[in-house]
Design brief:
EAL domain-containing protein, about 250 residues, binds sodium ion, alpha/beta, binds manganese (II) ion, 8-stranded mixed β-barrel, TIM Barrel, binds guanosine-5'-monophosphate
Length: about 250
């Protein structure tokens, strides 16, 4: 309850931020886009990750507020970059099942994009298997509507759930993000390497793009590159950064 009171105060006092983590093309390491990650700039405790507050906000019914904050902030930021001649590439946003199944989610998202003149094709909606695991027709309908409007759908943390393959049939997926647990042991664990190779081959045969997450070393990068991953993300390539640092990353003046 104390946390929730603090959360409500933080909402009123604009203490929520987005961090921007670069996604690069494996080939040539050129910028491809950003994944946006919510943060709470707490007055005493500093910068907090979603683990410290997101579940509590969802349980309190604040997931709609979070969805709106993330989309609005990311779209406004992208518009600012574009107006300054900077190209942020794709913008990945994470949404939970309860966010996606909320009434009007798809329409609200498209309205925000229209308001900021952001092409839906720029947006990658990252959903986890847990997020879509309930066979909820509202989730399927929202994803279908967004996909038809041009929004790209990514399955996040791919490989960690137990019905990943079924989701590829049921949802209009464009991108697979290989969970970092596989990336961590790539090269040292034959099983993880084999699974990663299988995921890449499966994705490509379905015409999907593959993102490797959590790349921390050059050795991991080299192996994932050899396996054919299209895109990469991780501390080696770029940490989640503030909007100002992301502006510099794009070659602009913060
Ligand atoms: O940013 P960090 O690595 O701490 O993220 C931890 C988890 O929280 C990840 O699974 C990430 O997908 C999720 N997450 C980060 N930002 C958001 C957000 O804005 N909305 C939702 N629903 N999840 C997020
Ligand atoms: O589940 P999702 O992929 O959305 O999680 C994103 C989270 O992963 C963010 O909290 C981000 O801080 C974290 N992250 C991003 N790159 C790395 C990395 O190279 N190593 C580790 N350990 N975490 C990472
Ligand atoms: Mn993600
Ligand atoms: Na992930």
């Amino acid at each position: 309850l104390k946390l929730l009171n603090e959360v409500r105060l933080a909402m009123a006092e604009n203490q929520f931020r987005l961090a921007y983590q670069p996604v690069l093309r494996m080939e040539g390491r050129g910028h491809s886009g950003f994944e946006v990650l919510i943060r709470w700039l707490h007055s005493r405790r500093g910068l907090l990750g979603p683990g410290a507050f997101l579940d509590a906000m969802e349980a309190a019914g604040l997931h709609g507020w979070v969805a709106r904050f993330v989309l609005e902030t990311a779209a406004r930021q992208a518009r600012g970059w574009l107006d300054h001649g900077l190209d942020p590439g794709t913008i990945g946003v994470n949404m939970s099942g309860s966010q996606i199944r909320a009434d009007g989610f798809a329409d609200d998202m498209l309205a925000v994009l229209t308001a900021w003149r952001i092409a839906p094709q720029r947006i990658v909606l990252e959903v986890t298997e847990q997020g879509v695991i309930a066979e909820d027709p509202r989730v399927a309908a929202a994803l279908a509507r967004l996909h038809a409007a041009g929004v790209r759908i990514a399955l996040d943390d791919f490989g960690t759930g137990y019905s990943s393959l079924a989701h590829l049939r049921r949802f209009p997926v464009d991108v697979l993000k290989i969970d970092r647990s596989f990336v961590t042991d790539i090269g040292t664990d034959a099983g993880d390497t084999a699974i990663t190779r299988a995921i890449v081959n499966l994705a490509h045969s379905l015409d999907l793009e593959v993102v490797a997450e959590g790349i921390e070393t050059e050795a991991q990068f080299a192996r994932l590159s050899a396996l054919g991953c299209d895109l990469g993300q991780g501390f080696l390539l770029g940490r989640p950064m503030s909007a100002e640092a992301a502006t510099e990353w794009l070659g602009g003046v913060p």
